[in-house]
Design a protein that fits this description.
The protein is of the alpha+beta class and 235 residues long. It is 32% helix and 12% strand. The protein is elongated and about 115 Å long.
């Protein structure tokens, strides 16, 4: 008589084992996607900061070549408008139509938008962007003061920088307060982000966080004056 043989062993996965495997895969995939998203956000912020640095240098270069800062462009024009991205002024010898707007990217030979496809907000003090008088080399002097101030929060009494001639803002990934290529402004900015979008003389620059992801740069008065002296525009 033959001995009884044990039943054949099932070599497949049980439903519980399959469920555990699927959960592990989901967790790994989620972690991978979060890592990719964080890397992309970091890369976009780095690219935006690089653009801001280029814009600041372009503003300084324009001032050295023309004796003044460029006028802001009209932010409400669509990309199809013939004058979009150019200085908003009646003619070459007139004052600017505005002190707040967007970077005149066509005039400066720069890209229109930041990494999130939004225009850069731009403030230029009229004391530095006005027309150059006949016989003069610049529209301002070494004693001219800007009128914008940079703070680390909207409610702060102290300034990071004072008497600033020009300020440029990228409104970050959330875009609140930014002007779009359609000529419309994204609503919803509050707190510190509102300070960078409400056309006042106060701007906020601080570490991103707490519903704030704006990136801000400005033309420092001392650097502008030194560049103008080096270019022979100021004594």
């Amino acid at each position: 008589m033959q001995p009884l043989q044990p039943p054949p062993r099932n070599l497949g996965f049980t439903l519980v084992e399959l469920a555990i495997v699927l959960v592990i895969i989901a967790l790994l995939t989620s972690g991978l996607l979060m890592g990719i998203t964080a890397q992309r956000a970091s890369a976009e912020s780095t690219d935006a900061q690089r653009q801001l640095d280029n814009i600041r240098e372009a503003l300084l270069g324009f001032a050295m070549a023309n004796g003044r800062l460029p006028c802001p462009a009209n932010p409400a024009l669509t990309s199809a408008d013939a004058t979009v991205g150019t200085e908003d002024r009646p003619n070459a010898t007139s004052a600017c139509n505005r002190t707040y707007g967007v970077i005149p990217w066509v005039t400066l030979g720069l890209p229109e938008a930041d990494p999130w496809s939004r225009r850069f907000t731009y403030f230029a003090s009229s004391s530095f962007s006005g027309p150059v008088a006949t016989g003069a080399l610049a529209s301002f002097t070494l004693a001219t003061l800007g009128n914008a101030n940079i703070k680390d929060s909207a409610g702060s009494s102290a300034n990071i920088a004072s008497n600033v001639p020009a300020v440029v803002v990228s409104h970050g990934s959330n875009g609140l307060g930014a002007w779009q290529p359609s000529g419309t402004q994204i609503a919803g900015a509050v707190g510190d982000e509102l300070e960078n979008a409400n056309s006042t003389l106060t701007f906020v620059s601080r570490t991103p966080g707490n519903n704030f992801d704006d990136l801000v740069t400005w033309v420092a008065p001392g650097i502008l004056m030194a560049k103008m002296v080096a270019a022979g525009r100021l004594p």
